[in-house]
Amino acid sequence: MRPYVGFSPTTPQSAAGCRTEPPVSLPIAQTASPAATAAADPPEEPPGTASRHQGLCTGPNDGAVRVANTRGFSATVTANPPAPGTATASLTQQSFSNCTINVAFTTGIRSISVDNLPYTVSINSNGTVTVSKSGGSLQTTVVIIPSFGSDIKCVYTVTSITGTASNTDRSISFVNQQFTKLSGPGTCFSNAFFTATKTMHNGLQGSDVGLTPDMEATYRHFNELNAASFQDEYDYVIIHDPQPAPFATLCERKGRWIWRCHIDLTSPNPSVLRLLAPHLEAYDAAVFSAREYAPPTVQFPRIYVNPPAIDPTSPKNRHVYREELETILPRFDVDFDRPVISQVGRFDPWKDPLGVIDAYRLVKKKIPKVQLLLVASMARDDPEGWLWFERSVRHAGNDPDIHFLTDLRGVGALEVNVLQRQTDVSIAKSLREGFGLIVSESLWKSVPVVGGDVTGIRLQIKDGRHGYLVSSVKECADRTIELLRSPAKRKTMGKAGRERVRKHFLITRYLREYLRIFSDLAAGS
After folding, report:
1. Could you please report the per-residue DSSP string of 124-172?
2. What strands lie across the sheet with 160-166, from one edge to the other?
3. Which residues make Cβ contacts (< 8 Å) with residue 319, sequence separation at least 6?
4. Helices in 229-352 by DSSP H: which ranges?
């Protein structure tokens, strides 16, 4: 029996969409690609070679890339029939200049090049322009200048792009063309697939922003691509969260299929849930972290509850030796002889990093020596992460006692372990939380937690016993001050928290529950 299938979807990326500026409780942040205009040969020109330089090309100011550039291209007209008809050309050269970028920790764009030339350009009488590559795909390489280190190369591809031609101003416009990322690190700007799935994730957790038709098409397209390469040779297949949920209706199935949902679906956006429902109902069972997360409008054949758990032997949770402390702690500009509060987690609006900073400022009025650590890994599959990191840094201002510690500074699992153990009070001020393993991780290290009063955190904390549940910035600050001023209370709560995790939130319990689920599904069939 092979009870688990791990699957990593491909990472399609483009610069499509638009970024909004929501309040903390309404998360949506997307990126934008610039509208492009390029002069083209008028239809009445005979076949031949044309070379042009165009004027100003502007893109939206709220996206990852801003373009105000002079561009040139060379193309050979290969057919030019009278209207109605389709003119064609062979594009052999395309250049860009004066491009700018607003991706975090970058200072500019070194170059944008068009690869795999020549391309075929066709222009219909109605003004529709299609650019494609015979027997291949269009490809472009963007070289980004980082704030430090070597240049970053990002390579993107697309089957074809479509624009509109105008004889009035002799232009061809291409707007919001979506490309798929072929290679490049997480710094390479945002993408269509993850923008769509992040919008879906936020919608399922209550955001009132749904998917656009383009997002739905992107979501379907890449799930179809991934499903085509997956063969079910297993007794049990577990598909996690909404990103690959359509697999249940796209794959030829052999074993029993389980959908594992890690997020809070107590108040989902109806349009997003309707999009997913046909796929979810095709599974043999669904597993949630809490029973109330299962939406009643979706007809799951079976529902199981199995909250997440931590591995006490992993680098993030194992015992830390004195030698490791002495090696790791000096790497950070933090005075661990002074009070320390920390929040470990992604930079996104559901984690409310701006609210954490506001609570810290209230704490600092009463305890001036307190320091705040915001510890995170900058996930490659989270298009909002960089945006919320930037917002958090701006919100923090020049306060030397607010420390941003990420994997970009060498903060890995063991470093997080060490930093958590040096924390006096752990903060988990989530506005919505499927579970939040950070809570159990902190409690396992005997550190009390001040957490948001949301279902996932209520599963782990009994208010007043293992920490406190809070619903506002002021509550968060007040409870943190109370704990910082009472070492005895911190010790008592930390000890009770570790015992709670030992009984309920270790992987031994998690594994036992999955084995029970597998057995139940086998018996039911």
Report:
1. ETTSEEEEE-TTS-EEEEEEEEESSSS-EEEEEEESEEEEEEETTTTEE
2. 36-39, 171-174, 160-166, 128-132, 119-124, 86-95, 72-79, 49-53
3. none
4. 247-250, 270-280, 322-328
Q: What is the rounded CA–CA span in Å between residue 200 and residue 215?
A: 9
| Amino acid code (one letter) for 361 | R
500 neighbors 446 (Cβ within 8 angstroms): no
Tokens of 23: 């309040």
293: DSSP letter:
G
| Alpha helix ranges (H) inside 329-467 | 353-366, 385-396, 413-421, 437-444, 455-458
Whether 180 and 218 have beta carbons less than 8 Å apart is answered as: no
The DSSP secondary-structure symbol of 27 reads: -
Specify the amino acid at residue 80: N
Q: How far is CA 402 from the centre of its chain?
A: 24
Residue indicated by tokens 């970058």: 106
Cα separation, 172 vs 59, whole angstroms: 15
Which residues, at least 6 apart from 39, have a Cβ–Cβ distance to it below 8 Å? 52, 54, 170, 171, 172
Let me know: does 344 contact 430? Beta carbons within 8 Å. Answer: no
How many CB atoms within 10 Å of residue 120? 15
Q: What is the pLDDT of residues 145-177, one digit of tens each?
A: 877 678 888 888 888 888 888 877 777 777 666
Checking if the pLDDT of 320 tops 50, the result is yes
- Please count the residues of the chain: 525
Instruction: Provide the 3-class DSSP secondary structure of residue 66.
Output: strand
CA 311 to chain centre: 24
Torsion of CA 286, 263, 230, 525, to 10 degrees: -10
* pLDDT value at 67 more than 50: no
**Can you tell me the distance from the alpha carbon of 187 to that of 291, in angstroms, rounded to the nearest whole number?**
38
CA 525 vs CA 237, 521, 522: distances in Å: 15, 6, 5
pTM of the shown model:
0.68
Flag whether pLDDT at 432 surpasses 80: yes
**CA 331/CA 314 separation, integer angstroms:** 22
Beta-sheet strands, E only, within 415-497: 425-428, 449-452, 467-470
For residue 34, pLDDT beyond 50 = no
pLDDT greater than 50 at residue 7 = no
For the purposes of burial, counting CB atoms within 10 Å of the CB of 30, is it exposed (0-12), middle (13-18) or buried (19 or more)?
A: buried
> What is the distance between the alpha carbons of residues 402 and 296, in angstroms, rounded to a whole number?
43
Decide if 423 contacts 254 (C-beta within 8 A).
Answer: no
User: Quick one: angle between helices 353-366 and 385-396, nearest 10?
Assistant: 20
